[in-house]
Each structure stands twice: as structure tokens, then as C-alpha cells.
Amino acid sequence: xxxxxxxxxxxxxxxxxxxxxxxxxxxDASFSLPQGAIAALVGANGSGKxxxxxxxxxxxxxxxxxxxxxxxxxxxxTHTHPRVAFLAQRRPLYADMTVRxxxxxxxxxNDRWNDDRAREVLDKxxxxxxxxxxxxxxxxxxxxxxxxxxxxxxxxxxxxxxxAGLDPLAREDLLRILMADVADRGTTxxxxxxxxxxLEAICDHLVLLEDGCVRLCGGIDDLLADHQFLVGANDVTxxxxxxxxxxxRRTDRQATLLVRGETDAAGWDVERPSLEAxxxxxxxxxxxxx
Length: 290
Ligand SMILES: Nc1ncnc2c1ncn2[C@@H]1O[C@H](COP(=O)(O)OP(=O)(O)OP(=O)(O)O)[C@@H](O)[C@H]1O
Prior knowledge:
CATH topology of the largest domain: Rossmann fold
InterPro entries: AAA+_ATPase (IPR003593), ABC_transporter-like_ATP-bd (IPR003439), P-loop_NTPase (IPR027417)
Shape: globular
Structural class: alpha/beta
Pfam family, one: ABC_tran
Domain ABC transporter: 11-236
Organism: Saccharopolyspora dendranthemae
Keywords: ATP-binding, Nucleotide-binding
Bound molecules: adenosine-5'-triphosphate
Distance between the termini: 53 Å
Largest sheet: 6 strands, mixed
CATH superfamily of the largest domain: P-loop containing nucleotide triphosphate hydrolases
């Protein structure tokens, strides 16, 4: 018997726009993520990633556009949603208090709270409850931040550069804990990152921002299948339509084009991009445009 799987939309963003006094940080951004997606949010410095995450977390009010989380509209002002947790880049913890007191305070502030979940995460990270937060390393603090976020049992977890400043082992610990949550609870993750090699193995969706606009988004397998590198001698001009070319590199001898969609590649060698190469192609093209 055939079964039809109906995909629930975890997050739907439409025309989201935010302007600071310094200028427009997010410009008519639209995308959606299915429930259970593990999505990487990438873009150059200043492209709007933190602004987008703060808007989705309901900590900033948009100038225009809508955000819907599991079908609930967040509305126009600053509204947090009980099914959403946000781990901000600066990991807001009470540094002079113990880990236990941090849990107690954040637990008291949230209706949805599972203290056992926090203790489980801290235990996995070998972090003592009576340790003062200020005595913890960067990696340990990241785990405390993750414990606080995961104990709210979010269905959508937003993470702003969760791996920044962590050594490879601490990154692995944090990713393992996040992935266990995804496996246990089907949590949808959207996390910003600069180092894609960390996320390549675990992410299945990508959202790429360029100057506040969503330049690329979708399932990673589909995006990779829809792009190719065409490599040839520098004098190959080939029948590639200009609008298909995302990025073009030329050295004295060789030309490399990143193209989107099926094109006639006669005269070129065709290579499939890795996720990192695809993202770098878009970022480089974006930098040249700006
Ligand atoms: N509170 C603020 N007031 C004024 N301008 C801001 C504020 N926050 C961000 N910006 C500006 O908005 C733009 C987007 O910034 P944002 O921090 O969202 O980008 P980002 O992609 O997260 O950057 P990074 O990768 O460096 O963390 C930048 O030009 C930044 O200078």
C-alpha cells in the first residue's frame, strides 16, 4: 500500500524586512523550512543572519513581512513563541551564578521547561551544576547555553553561530547533543555558521543571504543537483547562457564557471560542486556585486 507523507511546515517567512538607522539589514526575505529540517544559514559578514534569527525568535520587530511558526503568525511586534528557542551568539548567561542557578532562573521564566533535559545535556558535557559560569571554558559555556535552550523543549531551535570559538572536540560534543535532540524529538534546526565544513555532514537544508536578501534556499541535495562547475581552457566560450552563470573565475589558462540549471556543456568538463564550493561561489559572486 502506498503511504503519502504530508510534510508540516515548521517555519514560513514572507517578505521579512528590517531597517536599522545604519541601513537595511533584511530585505523582503522569504523562505520556508519543513518540520525536522536541519538548516544552515550562511552569508558574508553583515549579510543579515543575526538580524533574521532575532526576528524569527521574536526579539526584534520587523518593519514588514510575516513569520509563521507551525502555522502560528508571530504578528507585527516582538513576540516570542513557546515552541521556539534561540541560542544567541553571545550566550546570555548569568556569569557570577552557578550553572544550577542559571537553570533555576531560566526555568522559572519559561512555561515549557524540562529540568531533566538540562541535567542530561550538562551530564553529557561533564559540567558540574555547582560550577560558577564565569569559571567555565568557552566550550562548556556553549553547552550550558545549549542545555538551557534544549530544556525548553523547542520544536524550532534557532542557533546563532553555535560553534564559533569552540575547539574541534567541543564542536563535536555540541553537535552530538543537538543531533540527539533532532533524533529524539524531531526538532527543526536553523543555525548560522561561517565554517561550513562543520555542518556539511549534518545539514539537509540551506538558506544563503546576500545583503539581506535570500539568494539561495532549499534542500541541499536538490541545490547540489541543480548546480555544476564547468571547467575548461580559458579560451572556451561555450554555449552557456549568461543568466545561468552564478560565478566565473578565469586564470591565464583555465576558466571555471558555476552554473545553475541544466545547460549545454559542450566543450567543458563538468564537475558536481560540494556544498562548501557552492556556497563559496555564491559568496564570492555576491562580494563582487557589492
Ligand atoms: N543593532 C543594530 N543597529 C544598527 N545596525 C545594525 C544592528 N545590528 C546589525 N546591524 C547592521 O545590519 C547589518 C546586518 O547585520 P547582522 O548582524 O544581522 O549580519 P550577520 O550576517 O549576522 O553578520 P556576522 O556574520 O558578521 O555576524 C549589518 O550591516 C550591521 O552593521
